[in-house]
Design brief:
Blueprint lengths: L16 H4 L1 H8 L3 H19 L6 E6 L4 E11 L9 E3 H7 L8 E6 L7 H25 L5 E10 L7 E5 L4 E5 L14 E12 L3 E7 L3 H11 L1 H4 L3 E9 L3 E8 L6 H6 L4 H9 L4 E6 L4 H8 L7 E5 L4 E6 L4 H5 L4 H10 L2 E6 H16 L6 H9 L5 H6 L13 H18 L2 H39 L3 H6 L6 H9 L5 H5 L4 H8 L3 H21 L2
Parallel strand pairs: 2-3, 7-9, 11-12, 14-15
Antiparallel strand pairs: 1-2, 2-4, 5-6, 5-8, 6-7, 8-9, 10-11, 13-14
Helix pairs in contact: 3-5, 6-9, 9-19, 10-12, 13-14, 13-17, 21-22
Amino acid sequence: MVKKKSEVKKGHGIEIDIADALDGLSRDKDIDAETIKLAIGEALIDTAKRKISKDLDLECEYNSDDKKFELYQFKKVVEEFVENEFTEISFDEALEYDPEITIGEEIGIPFEMNTRIDAYVARTAIIRKIREAEKKMVFNEFKMRVGELITGNIKNVEGDDKKSGAFVVDIGKTEAVLYAKDKPEKENLRLGDKVQAIIVKVEEMPKDGYIVKLSRKDPKFLIKLFEKEVPEIYEGVVEIKDAVRDPGKRAKVAVYSTDSDTDPVGACVGLKGQRVKNIVTELKGEKVDIVVWSPNEVKFACNAIAPANVVQVVQDDSNRTMDIIVPNEQLSLAIGKKGQNVKLASKLVKWELRILSEADHQRLEEKGLDQLSKLTTIDNADATALYKLGFKTLEDIVDAPISDFPLLPGFNKELIGRLKDEASEFLRVYGSEVEREKEIIQKTYLEQLDDEEDENEIENIEEQEEKEEEVFLTPEEIVLSMPGVDQDIWIRLNVADYYSIEDILKEDSIESFAQKGGFSFSKAKQIINAAKQTLRKLKRKNG
């Protein structure tokens, strides 16, 4: 039985300056006094064990009256012969501390610190323990803040590789790391830049204590920007159901309103588009589509595929696929650049969305009817009747329960069973011509769009080269050469559809320019005057 400290004779505590400064230390380090006391106690015990013996069984307490830390050593009481002086005490010696002690019990006796441990070594250990406690406190705080939006300044840039480099960000109490792979590839950050990001992970490290990891690519970063910019989200009137991104290029956000009088899209866009403009500016020009979420998955898919219109949706629940049929002229709009629009929409809806033009959809239906006509269980008239009633492919026949089949003349359970068996066997042997054709069409779409995009890109490059030969500078470079215009201003101009000096000078008034660009009146006036001055210089240069 271990004797309580209140039952043992008090000995001398260790007198270390840090004990007298406990309250001040607690305030300076922003750590509660009890945590510091615990750290000091652990340091004293570690020092004693390291200097004397690891066999020591010690406990430490702080005597607030004497402002001293007191150590107690616990030993087992033996009759006479002591084999280990660090773990055992003779019965006669134990009686000096506690007259009621018996052999076999454990007793706590004062451990004389002043004569056995170097005070400097103890202080060094104490400082180390306090630093560890401080790191642990910050680690625990930021671990609770994972997912939070934070702002900091880039303090250091490590590495030159865009994919393997890292930015050290000062976020106040500690430093965080934004790896290059966790920001959009084309996003340029420099030493001293102010940057926003979300905390995605806080990890303990063997040597450094911990590391706070940031991200500007995570979809949650976009969600947090909306929460910051849109009061209705904070108030709970508008909810963000989900967000998906192709970082630096395009994103889709699904929103929903709990109030029928509140338009969730309008709330996120803001008056004259200012709210979403602020978000696009922070994302360095990333296009953001805001779509209305719906519990009806087909309706949600139609909303997600915007800006394209949807003519028809064919849903396959078993494979979680939807064929989205769009007008022929809106095919490229629905698919998007390199399939970007449909890929993001699929991620948002969590279904595989396959885009088809009306013409190709009609062709596939005809192929489906052709396969139905090859079945020997029914004649062409029955195949056409089934087709008109919604059984457009062999898969439809195989997957549908018998109860779903219409009461056509001559149709009974036996015939329907044979029909389903034949359709299943046909698919097993020959496969689905409709699905094969659909895959070919999807692949062809993407190849055609890629070719068109490559041609457009070549044309754009040639046009740009021609312009550069004439004036030596691109419109972007000209605007960026204007006094008071940096990359952030350029992005804000782009969002407001200003892409050149000429676009800026087309505005009727400074007020109109300020309102569209989201600038103050004085800033708008400065930009317009700079544009006029730069244009005069270009005219003189080009004769």
